[in-house]
Amino acid sequence: MGQITLKGVRKAFGDVEVIPPLDLHINEGEFVVFVGPSGCGKSTLLRLIAGLEDVSGGEIEIDGQPSTDLPPARRGLAMVFQSYALYPHMSVKKNIAFPLKMAKADQATIDRKVENAARILNLTDYLDRRPGQLSGGQRQRVAIGRAIVREPAAFLFDEPLSNLDAALRVNMRLEISELHQKLKTTMIYVTHDQVEAMTMADKIVVLQAGRIEQVGSPLELYRSPRNRFVAGFIGSPK
Ligand code: ADP
Ligand code: MG
Asked: Which letter does DSSP use for residue 101 in this model?
């Protein structure tokens, strides 16, 4: 579960091609980071995988199934939005339960899954609070909880920490890495922050203007950047 393959995937908005055809393979259980400067197409690529945008060409396969056959809800992927996407009038418990309610799960299942997610995220004592009564880090954990209860084949994060201050970002980075160790689920994590990429990734995909400049482990990219752009971006000595 959670194996994702992009074959010649491209995306244009009107006449503007923001992603020229690209190929990429993501293995089951991998923590993959898409990194690159603002406007390079990271969010677009993630949204194509999630099915929130249609590809202009090529194909995305999720666990061997062509995504053209799979509407977003059936892809088994959970997008984690920034914490401000929470419902302010609902309790933490209801926020986390929301996708299960939408899927018409029964109450016993909802309670079990919400409790489990809350335990994983250390939110058990906060279930009755509203988002406004939580710290930034706790709010971000609630947003992650809402993804966990769906038991997705892969988690998709789009710059989830960009709203948080520097100290909290470091903390949440560790928490998300720990979550990956616990769940062993595929995670795709988008960031413009090379430090996040280097510290969190099994595999880094460096993007520039919609093109993949290099794919490799943090160590591979650091030791053998393919070009100046990668070297400069990763902060390699070369
Ligand atoms: P990133 O997430 O790396 O900052 P994006 O994927 O948001 O980059 O954007 C990549 C490029 O595609 C940018 O030039 C952006 O202006 C353009 N773009 C993104 N979404 C749309 C859209 N819905 N319509 C037109 N252009 C878009
Ligand atoms: Mg973006």
From this structure: H
The number of the ligand 1 atom at minimal distance from the alpha carbon of 47 is 6
Q: Distance between CA atoms of 134 and 218, rounded to whole angstroms?
A: 34
Beta carbon of 206 within 6 Å of any ligand 1 atom: no
Distance 159 CA to ligand 1 centre (A): 14
ipTM over 0.90: yes
CB of 216 within 8 A of CB of 229?
Answer: no
Instruction: Put the strands of the sheet holding 57-62 in their side by side order.
Output: 16-26, 4-13, 57-62, 65-66
Q: What is the pLDDT of residues 144-198, one digit of tens each?
A: 999 999 999 999 999 998 888 888 899 999 999 999 999 999 999 999 999 999 9
Q: For 113-152, write each residue's pLDDT tens digit.
A: 999 999 999 999 999 999 999 998 999 999 999 999 999 9
The Cα 41–Cα 11 span in angstroms is 9
CA distance 210 to 220: 21
Determine if ligand 1 sits within 6 Å of the CB of residue 32.
Answer: no
Residues with CB under 5 A from ligand 2 (ion): 43
Q: Which of left, alpha, beta for 122 (phi over 0: left; psi -120 to 50: alpha)?
A: left
DSSP class of 90: S
| Residue to substitute in 10, 11, 43, 44 for testing ligand 1 pocket (most ligand atoms within 8 angstroms of CB) | 44
